[in-house]
Amino acid sequence: MVDEKEFLSQSSDMATFATGGYAHGLQTKAMMHKIDTDGDGTVSHDEFIAYQNKVFDMMDKNKTGSLGPQEFLGK
Q: Where in the chain does DSSP place strands (E)?
């Protein structure tokens, strides 16, 4: 579990590790609440994975279950 204080902490390496380094700008209260689907003020492993699955599905434009270079890089 990650609580709001830890999620929003700019000194945390959590977002860098989890997203390849680009997510410090996504460490916002709005994003925390989007991922925290049960509204308990924490992000569980299951909530985090469910959100990542949604992101993957949005990126998988041709619905193959894998990302090619164009999909992964957004080109």
A: 2-3, 42-43
Contact 55, 74 (CB under 8 A): no
Q: Which stretches in the chain have pLDDT values below 70?
A: 10-25, 75
Q: What is this structure's pTM? A: 0.71
What is the DSSP-derived secondary structure letter of residue 11? T
- Burial label for 58, CB within 10 Å (0-12, 13-18, 19+), is exposed
Which of 24, 19, 43, 16 minimizes the C-alpha distance to 32? 43
Cβ-based burial of 43 (10 A; exposed 0-12, middle 13-18, buried ≥19)? buried
